[in-house]
Amino acid sequence: MEIKDDMRMISLLLRSKRRVEVLKSLEFEDKIPSKISKDIGDGSNHVSKYLKTLKEAELIVCLNEDDNMYRFYSITDKGKYYLHKVQEEYSE
Question: Which residues, at least 6 apart from 47, have a Cβ–Cβ distance to it below 8 Å?
């Protein structure tokens, strides 16, 4: 992985602690947005934006994209890598 890409991903996560919280929520279990919303204590409209951003960055994936309701999201290996990297190297 190139350093430029590495820094871009780290910056994406550090700019919003909620994105990190979404990844933490998905670390051990696939979930629907309403469950993620409860886990992180944020509204579903915000969670949808976080999910979109993380999905575009390939840190998460939707497991059943064709369903209009109860879409399940899962963290990717790339997402786990950057979650752990941010937690280990940049946590306060």
Answer: 22, 33, 36, 37, 40
Distance between CA atoms of 92 and 90, rounded to whole angstroms?
Answer: 6
- In the chain, the number of structural domains is 1
Q: Note whether 78 and 59 are within 8 A (CB).
A: yes
Angle at 46 between CA 4 and CA 13, to 5 degrees: 20
How many other β-carbons are positioned within 10 Å of the β-carbon of residue 27?
A: 12
Q: What does pTM read for this prediction?
A: 0.92
Question: What dihedral do alpha carbons 66, 71, 76, 81 form, nearest 10°?
Answer: 150
Q: What is the mean pLDDT of the chain?
A: 93
Q: Which residues contact 36 (CB under 8 A, 6 or more apart)?
A: 22, 25, 26, 47, 51, 73
